[in-house]
Structures are given as C-alpha cells and as structure tokens.
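Review this chain:
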Amino acid sequence: MCVEVLGLVDVRAGLSFAERWANAGLDNLHFLPAESNTPLKWSLAESGEAGGGGGPLLSFKVESLALNKSQHRVAKLITHYLITPTGEIGIDVELAVEKWVPPLGRVGLRLKLRANEDDELSWLGRGPGENYPDRHQGVFVGVHRSRPFLDGHVPYIRPQENGSHGGCHWAQVGSFMVRGGTPFSFRCSPYSDEALAAATHQTDLVTDAPDGGAARALELHVDTLMMGLGGDDSWSPSVHPPYLLNSHRSRGKPAYKYQVWLTPMGPEDHARDIARRPVYRPV
C-alpha cells in the first residue's frame, strides 16, 4: 500500500531506477503483520466531530513488514485508521525504509475505483496539464476539471508513467473524494502500472474490468512524496539530488509520513466544504 515504484519512464530505460527497483524486489512486495491493536486515540476524536458527524468512532493501528521475494526486509509500516460515522476513513502512515533500499519512486496510496465513463475528475492543485516535482513551471494552482477516461492518459509513443498532478489539497472522482494532511500528488488513469509496464505501444494497453464484469475501473495514486523525472539525457538516471526520495539512506533521518482522508460523497456534498473539515492525528 505504501512502498511503490514509479511506473517506467522512457528516459529511464537501460541503466535506470526501474532496473534498481526490480533488482531490489520492490516490484513484488508482500506484507506480514507485525503487531496490531485497537482501540487507538486520535486527537479531538472524542468531540464526535471527526468526519463532520457525531457518534462512535472506530480506530485501530496495524504494524506490518514489507518483504521482497527474497524475504529481505524492505520497510516497516505503522498504519493508523480512523473510521467516522459518515463513512470517512482517515489513514495515517509512518514508513521506515531500510537503508539498503535504493531511492524510492513514490510514497503513498494506490487505489482501484469502480467508475462510470462520464465521471468527472476535479482537483485543487497544479494543472491542468501533467506535472512532476521537477517539471511544474508551466502549470498553475487552481481548481481543474477533466474526464479520466477521455483525457486522464497521456499517449506517449511508448506507454509509461504519466498524468501526475502535484501540489494538491483535494481530488474528487465521481462520488469519491480524497484529501491530504499535506499537499500531495495524484494520478487517475484507466490504465494500471502493470498495464503500462507490459505495453510497448498504445494499442497494447488494456483496461481493467472489476470482478470481470462490464464496469470500468480507474487506478488512483495518491502520493505524498514522489521522485522527479530527470531526463537531462536518455542514457543515465539523471534525477537531480533535491528530487530523489533517499532520506532513508541517511543516518538519523525520520520515517516517511503521510495522511489521507477518503470520503464518500452524497448528492448534496461539495468538495470545498469537506476540504474545510479538520484533520485529526493519532496520539
């Protein structure tokens, strides 16, 4: 859920970060429970106001280990969950990555959403074009709108990572909304990372159908941290140091942390109102 590789980018082919991630087994992680307990207190949660509604709150903590296929420990995750009476889910994560792990591609959450062809995507953040930590001078912060099935994918000659939007405070897809404790990046696409990696031409791309049915699916990445694209040349991994996610390789550095809130929206709900709700943290 929290340790991910960034989808293949064409300038990284060959001697690339993608190759380093594959060698480290980051493309095939599995998770083992380390410890779990419930309940867990969240600050201000006893007021009954979290999520915009009163009543009992469900909260718990899960500790788990991320291992690669060689059973080497990659990271330890401490995940706190808070479920409110309105159905909103708060997820607070601490991610302690082992020092041997190469710089990460992204730190965040990956979701699969059941969606309709005409669902609209809106967000408060950088846009309307795609942008990354080291490529965002030509976009602007504001409320932007698009339709993921029509324009959520950038058709590069070789399918690859695309369509990210950074500096976001919230994003809404149909009746689903996500907001962050801090600004985040997101990508909402009809194509999964696996589909992008397996394709060599745009005509090779296939979309997922949930449960094998006719419904369409969208893949949503919500990333508190993301590595830059680089691209000074096409034969070396040339991401500049300020845009690398490698603080876990330095002595005494704290774990990566992020928080997101997942909110189901009714016909009378508005993203701007939900975005004003207070953010609660575990104590």
Q: What stands out?
A: The chain has four helices and twelve strands. The chain has one domain: 11-42+55-275.
